[in-house]
Amino acid sequence: MLAIKDVYKTFGNVEALKGLSFEVKKGTVFGLLGPNGSGKTTSIRIILSIIYPDKGEIEIGFKKIGYMPEERGLYPDMRIDELIIFFSRLRGMDKLITEKQMEFWLSRLELSDRRKDKVKNLSKGLKQRLHLLISVLHDPELLILDEPFMGLDPIAIKGLRDLVFELKSRGKTVLLSTHWMDQAEQLCDSLCLIKNGEKIYSGSLDALRKKHIKNEIYVEIEGNVNFEEFQGINKVKKEGKGFILIMEKKPENFIRELTDIADVKEFRTVYPSLEDIFIEEVGGE
After folding, report:
1. What does pTM read for this prediction?
2. At 96, which helix (H) or strand (E)?
3. Measured between alpha carbons, how far is 184 from 256 in angstroms, rounded to an integer?
4. Which domain holds residue 84?
């Protein structure tokens, strides 16, 4: 487990973190979400003891941590295999374990054919893969990814997303800092929303979505129905094979009335997207 408890941090007159608290459970993907300048990277640097808080506590229940920073730092004139071995030595890894891990991850991240290439000759996407390889080379229990989707094309984004799912299936814990709400929504079990260094919400994604449910439902019916005949419907929008209905209040009575006159093929509550929730919570920043 990783726990951040009432953490404060200032830089001069700037209050970067103001009593931030959240908890990351083992074996989960946790999202640290907020607009630019909200304190995400500062929080990560405090977790990694790169900088220290002015006040507060950090509890870390992981022995090995991997970190891929937003600002990528690789030695451009080194070959890929040389760079991997260099970082493995910094971590005190055994030579045989290094070779085994390097072969596995070069293959897994489709870099085997480029192992003799210099870093400076790699594309941005390949450099990102290499940085990720270095972050997981020592088989960390906790992997911290700071804005990992920045600058990636859709294929690379999918590859990274699949890898996060794979790591989770192997019992690893992932802390993901991002402002890409669509990716966070697909990946995260729990999250912390922060704004101006303060926690707005911390908990499960499901609970957050339920908290923001509006009186909107999706219905798909057989035949034609004039929704204007029903009371309490503010708006009707065509959506695929059905309709999204925006109701004045909870739709229990409406569903009973609808099933009396039509064959309802599908009915479900419409949950807001994480992007919609994010904009509502942080004020559209």
Report:
1. 0.86
2. helix 95-108
3. 36
4. 80-114
